[in-house]
């Protein structure tokens, strides 16, 4: 019931009085605002045009001219953690999101399960009478709940959202995304050759959801969280948008930093005298070498052309997505809703340095624990941004787009945590086109929305006492003077072992890069900055104010204990095979049955990689029972994409086992003629006999038809993962982007029947598996 029943109940219906309102949901007060939150990924403050950058963002510019631009708004330095603060208004460790879902571990601050004591804002707004929608990236489903059979209590619908359409995990292919709708995985509605791009699809779905509400309940306000795949890798964009930036970045990233800083000062984003920090500001040995920046002058002409093209693709991706947001804004204006819609347009962390010093045409190599090949990258330069690449720019552009700050995403220096934010609400904010300098953080978004909507966060929710919100409302800044004091006092930071804390205009930060592998946290050197006058953290005052530094260090530890920050983890997962292997072992893995065997069936949902049989790092066996006919062809199973994976396929009268090692040509194939019509067991056995330079397993893979070996080849297999997320295991089809060049999109199994496919990661022999499988078939 929405409230207590106030009717009258007598013996006879005729003498009783109904009270419908007791059973109807609450209605938001008349005139309540809509809320549209647009949350980009991986974007430094110096990238976009409202902040002086070269990437044109007409929609964001339009909103900035009609609202406010914030110069000191901050995030956690990483996507899942920041997004968790948008969900609940609590600090990321309190939400269990010290890191991304995919790298969660079994500690209170690191497990990626938001506790019931941190109810979401969407639940509160929905109960208060708002429709609630989530479109796009969802990086806050715990890794153990990604499967079709898992609990959906941490999926959007159970988190307070009426509808969801998007993707689960950190990233997806923008041409061939791994999509989910509400509580189930779905296929993309059409293909790239028919004009598909994820950003366009997401805007289409968002518009449908808003229109659905307005045609049935026109007075009901709504809250939409719109999370495009941009600007996270892979950087994919239509060629016409990439072409807009041809030559725009040919001067290089160092020149860009020199060019953009004066423009940021001119626009009032930064104060006069703000210094430009060094391109490689951290001492050797204090950060991962994969985060270094190669000086532009040290590049040859081919490298400069490739690096420039990578920036062009990124820029085109960003502007194209802004145009899709523009379609939503246009509709709101045409329908008369824009005036009373709070639009919050921002990004979740600084520009990404995960492309390494040389950039990448296949960012998935990072998740496979394997280095990039610059020669291969150069061969693919003309394909960047297309379905043929999974590209990411080099660290130099991450530094440039995070000007004038030190470092970038993952770092608790300003380069990782200072982000763009524009807020527009014509009916509720009198100021137009002004800059606000109050210090704020992503934890402040929830209290801001709630106050603007006139909704209080409850002390208890569903009978559970609630943790107080970590943030403060930004509403006082709406009509304050640009330089009025902030109502925020303290904000701690921690990411992959690097620590920081801001308190009343001062900030302390450790010289200890994230994922650096240093350990020895007690020996960390701390720096001290007076950020009120030194926005770029260029003047270390630790020697001049040792007492202030000690005060902040003690305050950091106090905040860490309150927010479940410990233990600290800085394992060097990129560039250090041993640490990578250690970390992979700490991640969630689907527990194997005692037999070591996983059984999969056709006509079922995609199985996410982290929950599928783990074929990475060791030996494995696969057996499939197939009913063959003369017309049999198609995918028996597929796992991964053209950028890494493996598949068992029937094509052109042959059975092929294909292993695609991180998209590096050529594919490894073991093939044999299709067997005669009838029931047969097709088997694959890989035996790990050693490892390569990067601990990638090596050994023979054998193909069997029934008990007879029909092929063999030496291969190498992936140690880490085929992808960060998506591109899971499918039976009888390939989920999206094909694993092998042998076939195109889909290539569903036809002309026969797959009974089941068994993956075995135990230590027995193939013949044992075949015998067990035959016995299982006999029992069925």
Automatic annotation (TrEMBL):
Cross-referenced PROSITE patterns: SULFATASE_1
GO molecular function list: hydrolase activity; metal ion binding
Annotated Sulfatase N-terminal domain residues: 33-455
Pfam family, one: Sulfatase
The entry's keywords: Calcium, Hydrolase, Metal-binding
InterPro entries for this protein: Alkaline_phosphatase_core_sf, Sulfatase, Sulfatase_CS, Sulfatase_N
Domain of life, per lineage: Bacteria
Family named by the database record: Belongs to the sulfatase family.
Protein name: Arylsulfatase AtsA
Annotated organism of origin: Agromyces mediolanus (Corynebacterium mediolanum)
């Amino acid at each position: 019931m929405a409230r207590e029943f106030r009717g009258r109940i007598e013996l006879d219906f005729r003498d009783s009085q109904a009270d419908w309102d007791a059973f109807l949901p609450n209605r938001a007060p008349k005139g309540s605002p809509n809320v549209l939150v647009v949350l980009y990924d991986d974007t430094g403050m110096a990238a976009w045009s409202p902040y002086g950058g070269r990437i044109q963002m007409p929609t964001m510019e339009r909103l900035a001219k009609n609202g406010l631009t914030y110069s000191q708004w901050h995030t956690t330095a990483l996507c899942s953690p920041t997004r968790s603060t948008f969900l609940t208004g609590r600090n990321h460790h309190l939400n269990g999101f010290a890191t991304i879902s995919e790298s969660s571990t079994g500690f209170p601050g690191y497990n990626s399960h938001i506790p019931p004591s941190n109810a979401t804002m969407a639940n509160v707004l929905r109960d208060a009478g708002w429709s609630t929608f989530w479109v796009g990236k969802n990086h806050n489903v715990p890794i153990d709940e990604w499967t079709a059979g898992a609990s959906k209590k941490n999926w959007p619908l159970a988190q307070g959202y009426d509808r969801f359409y998007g993707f689960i995990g950190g990233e997806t292919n923008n041409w061939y995304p791994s999509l989910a709708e509400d509580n189930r995985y779905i296929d993309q509605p059409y293909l790239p050759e028919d004009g598909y791009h994820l950003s366009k699809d997401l805007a289409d779905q968002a518009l449908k959801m808003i229109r659905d509400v307005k045609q049935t309940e026109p007075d009901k306000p709504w809250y939409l969280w719109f999370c495009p795949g941009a600007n996270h890798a892979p950087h994919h964009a239509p060629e016409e948008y990439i072409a807009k930036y041809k030559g725009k970045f040919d001067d290089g990233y160092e020149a860009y930093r020199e060019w953009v800083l004066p423009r940021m000062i001119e626009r009032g984003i930064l104060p006069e005298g703000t210094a430009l920090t060094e391109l490689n500001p951290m001492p050797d040995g204090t950060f991962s070498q994969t985060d270094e920046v190669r000086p532009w002058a040290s590049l040859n002409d081919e490298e400069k052309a490739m690096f420039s093209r990578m920036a062009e693709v990124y820029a085109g991706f960003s502007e194209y997505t802004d145009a899709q947001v523009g379609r939503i804004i246009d509709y709101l204006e045409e329908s008369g809703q824009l005036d009373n819609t709070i639009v919050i347009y921002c990004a979740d962390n600084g520009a990404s340095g995960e492309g390494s010093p040389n950039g990448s045409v296949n960012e998935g190599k990072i998740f496979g624990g394997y280095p990039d090949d610059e020669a291969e990258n150069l061969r693919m330069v003309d394909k960047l941004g297309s379905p043929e690449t999974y590209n990411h720019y080099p660290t130099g552009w991450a530094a440039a787009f995070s000007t004038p700050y030190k470092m970038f995403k993952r770092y608790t220096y300003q380069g990782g945590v200072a982000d763009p934010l524009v807020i527009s609400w014509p009916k509720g904010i009198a100021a137009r086109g002004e800059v606000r300098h109050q210090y704020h953080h992503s934890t402040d978004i929830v209290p801001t929305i709630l106050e603007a909507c006139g909704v209080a966060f409850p002390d208890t929710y569903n009978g559970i006492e609630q943790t107080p919100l970590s943030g403060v409302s930004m509403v006082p800044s709406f009509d304050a003077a640009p330089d009025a004091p902030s109502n925020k006092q303290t904000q701690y930071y921690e990411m992959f072992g690097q620590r920081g804390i801001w308190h009343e205009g001062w900030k302390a930060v450790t010289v200890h890069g994230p994922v650096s592998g240093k350990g020895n946290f007690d020996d960390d050197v701390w720096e001290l900055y007076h950020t009120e006058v030194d926005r770029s953290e260029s003047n270390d005052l630790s020697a001049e104010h040792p007492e202030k530094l000690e005060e902040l260090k003690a305050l950091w530890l106090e905040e860490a204990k309150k927010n479940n920050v410990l233990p600290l983890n800085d394992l060097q997962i990129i560039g250090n095979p041993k640490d990578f292997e250690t970390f992979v072992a700490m991640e969630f893995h689907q527990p194997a049955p005692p037999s070591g065997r996983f059984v999969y069936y056709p006509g079922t949902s995609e199985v996410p990689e982290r929950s599928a049989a783990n074929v990475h790092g060791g030996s494995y066996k696969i057996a499939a029972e197939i009913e063959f006919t003369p017309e049999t062809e198609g995918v028996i199973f597929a796992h991964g994409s053209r950028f890494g994976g493996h598949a068992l396929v029937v094509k052109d009268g042959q059975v092929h086992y294909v292993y695609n090692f991180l998209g590096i040509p050529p594919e490894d194939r073991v093939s044999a003629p299709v067997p005669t019509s009838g029931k047969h067991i097709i088997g694959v056995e890989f035996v790990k006999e050693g490892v390569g330079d990067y601990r990638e397993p090596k050994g023979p893979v054998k193909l069997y038809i029934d008990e007879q070996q029909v092929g063999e080849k030496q291969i190498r297999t992936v140690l880490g993962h085929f992808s960060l997320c998506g591109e899971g295991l499918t039976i009888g089809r390939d989920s999206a982007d094909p694993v092998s060049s042998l076939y195109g999109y889909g290539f569903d199994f036809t002309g026969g029947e797959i009974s089941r496919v068994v993956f075995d990661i135990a230590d027995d022999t193939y013949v044992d598996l075949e015998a067990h499988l035959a016995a299982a078939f006999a029992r069925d």
